[in-house]
Amino acid sequence: MPSEKILIIGAGGQIGVELVLALRAALGNNQVIASDLKKEVHPLLADGPYVTLDATDGAAITALIQKEKITQVYLLAAMLSATGEKMPMKAWEVNMGSLLQLLEIGVQEKLNKIYWPSSIAVFGTTTPRVETPQATIIEPTTVYGISKYAGELWCQYYQKRYKLDVRGLRYPGLISWKSAPGGGTTDYAVEIYHEALKSGHYTSFLSENTYLPMMFMDDAIRATIELMEAPAAQLSTGMAYNVGAMSFSPKEIAAAIQQHIPDFRISYAPDFRQDIANTWPQSIDDSTARKDWNWKPEFDLNRMTETMLYNLKKKG
Ligand code: VAH
């Protein structure tokens, strides 16, 4: 990447922490400014520039872009599916308010690129749930999904109307050991590894055969950077790309853990998040991403389980 100066908004979140680390490794610590609502910087991000920043504060974002000569912004701040259902209007305000403001700022400040994550949560019950296509019926039923689909349409509008280079991915559930998830329906797939090591038992808030598309964070970060580095001429859609890696159920991830921890036990107590999961795809067709910018995942359930348990054990 040429000498880009990058601002990550929402750097303290599950994706943000790992994206800052990856971009700093590629560009150098001082080329990547991490920012989040929190006053204190996330411990893993302490070796580079950090700013306390509210994703909805357009004036502060504009001032920072001008002061630091920012060329790219990654807007990761969002309220996820489960939290969004508890405070729908706040979720809409945060998710949409921050994006619409940044799109305007992107045009005014002539940003080279903006990254804004979408999610498989844009799909609803009227969408084919197996091998969900890139372009299909899209009728989200959660505030999070509605905000992500509306956001994709706004990103496409700014690309066409103002030639603003805005890119995104429809992430599946993401699993990481470095950073904690926050308020998602797929969080069970992270919690289960922690509990397998801590107590040897996990009570899943999704039922045993709830299949969902999932991805190990290393794949998600690589997909993000590969998309952002792809030549614009190769991108055939203005919407966020479907990306997939694997699909599994709570029963299957428990079995993968039992290969390493034979006494591990899982039980099931579905809650309101089951209703959300029931509206999402079971698997994703990501052939457009594979064709346009050579997307290819590297982690399956077994390799992810080995990596998660090894690193969580080491982390203590
Ligand atoms: C959530 N982790 O559960 C997010 C993600 C596909 C799910 O968008 O809300």
Number of domains: 2
Fraction of residues in H or I helices: 40-55%
Structural class: alpha/beta
Give the termini separation: 35 Å
Give me the CATH architecture of the largest domain, please: 3-Layer(aba) Sandwich
* Unreliable stretches covering 5 or more consecutive residues: none
- Provide the β-strand percentage band: 5-15%
CATH evolutionary superfamily of the largest domain: NAD(P)-binding Rossmann-like Domain
**Which ligands are bound?**
(3R)-3-hydroxy-L-norvaline
Mean of all residue-level pLDDT scores: 97
Characterize the biggest β-sheet: 6 strands, parallel
Structural Rg: 19 Å
CATH hierarchy class name of the largest domain: Alpha Beta
Q: Strands across the major sheet, in which order?
A: 3-2-1-4-5-7
Number of helices: 11
What is the overall shape?
globular
Write the CATH fold name of the largest domain. Rossmann fold
H/E order of the elements? EHEEHEHHEEHEEEHEEHEEHEHHH
How many beta-strand segments?
Answer: 14
Task: Summarize the structure in words.
- The chain is an alpha/beta fold.
- It has 2 domains: 6-172, Rossmann fold, CATH 3.40.50; 173-214 and 244-315, UDP-galactose 4-epimerase, domain 1.
- 42% of the residues lie in helices and 15% in strands.
- The chain has 11 helices and 14 strands.
- It has helices spanning 14-27, 58-68, 81-86, 88-108, 143-162, 188-198, 217-229, 250-258, 272-277, 287-293, 301-315, and strands at residues 6-9, 32-36, 50-52, 72-75, 113-115, 118-119, 166-167, 169-171, 173-175, 201-204, 212-216, 241-242, 246-248, 265-268.
- The strands form 4 sheets. A 6-stranded parallel beta sheet has the order 3-2-1-4-5-7, with helices on both faces. Strands 6-8-12 form a 3-stranded parallel beta sheet. A 3-stranded mixed beta sheet has the order 9-11-13.
- Strand 1 (6-9), helix 1 and strand 2 form a beta-alpha-beta unit.
- Helix 4 (88-108) packs parallel to helix 5.
- The longest helix has 21 residues, at 88-108.
- The chain is globular, with a radius of gyration of 19 Å.
- It starts with 5 loop residues before the first strand and ends with a helix.
- 48% of the residues are buried.
- The model has no long low-confidence stretch (mean pLDDT 97).
- Bound molecules: (3R)-3-hydroxy-L-norvaline.
- The site of (3R)-3-hydroxy-L-norvaline has 13 residues, from strand 9.
